[in-house]
Write a structure and sequence with these properties.
The chain has 218 residues and is of the alpha/beta class. The chain has one domain: Mannitol-specific EII, Chain A. The chain has nine helices and seven strands. The protein has a five-stranded mixed β-sheet, with helices on both faces. A hairpin with a 3-residue loop joins β2 and β3.
Length: 218
């Protein structure tokens, strides 16, 4: 993982890196709980990376490409507002029983474009209650006509995030941030014609992270 140095003995430093990123992209209701979870998370991945890659493959559901398979990608021409975008983006998660429809309502109520937009490229609606989430999952809505945020930012990509806890989606979230930083990747996603092409782009970022950390991504 780009933001976790597996050779570092200073776990606090690694935690602080992640804490800073998380606080920029979401609201933290319990700092202590989050830090405890991150300690376990980092210890787990540090130990995994020094053993073998086969253990990592057991956690592939944490990769971005696995959380957003081709069947979770939808493209439409336009939406009237962000509430419609969130609903359209999330209906596949309801249909597959990852979330209850009430979670869509919670995301609509909680959406704040001042911090739920990554690198002015991807909106990441999410809610802070795990009550209506059954399994960690993401989906992607691609808009041919952008929706505009309150500051005028044009957004073509909406990725709802549903997480059963504060930790299991972090690896995918960091990979999504890498995607959002690459304007060429964003352009290719918007111009894609097949859902499988989108998933291949996302796989490149999962594999890139695995290579950087010496993990077996197969």
């Amino acid at each position: 993982m780009k933001y976790i140095n597996k050779e570092s003995a200073d776990i606090d430093k690694e935690i602080n890196k992640l804490m800073a990123l998380i606080e920029r992209t979401t609201t933290v209701n319990d700092i202590t709980e989050l830090r405890d979870g991150l300690e376990d998370f980092i210890a787990n991945y540090n130990s995994i990376s020094t053993i073998n890659g086969s253990i990592v493959t057991q956690n592939k559901t944490l990769d971005l490409a696995d959380l957003i398979p081709a069947r979770h990608v939808k493209r439409i021409h336009h939406v009237e507002n962000i509430d419609e975008a969130i609903a359209k983006a999330s209906d596949v998660l309801v249909a597959n029983h990852f979330i209850d429809i009430k979670y869509i309502h919670e995301m609509q109520q909680a959406f704040d474009d001042s911090y739920m937009v990554i690198m002015q490229n991807i909106a990441i609606p999410h809610a802070y209650s795990e009550k209506h989430v059954h399994k960690t999952a993401m989906s992607m809505l691609i808009l041919q006509e952008p929706i505009y945020m309150s500051d005028g930012t044009a957004i073509h990509i909406i990725v709802p995030i549903a997480a059963v806890d504060k930790v299991t989606h972090l690896r995918a979230l960091l990979q999504l941030r890498d995607v959002a930083q690459n304007n060429d990747a964003i352009k290719r996603i918007i111009q894609s014609r097949k859902n499988s092409d989108v998933n291949e782009i996302l796989k490149n970022y999962s594999n890139k992270e695995a290579r950087e950390n010496g993990w077996d991504s197969n």
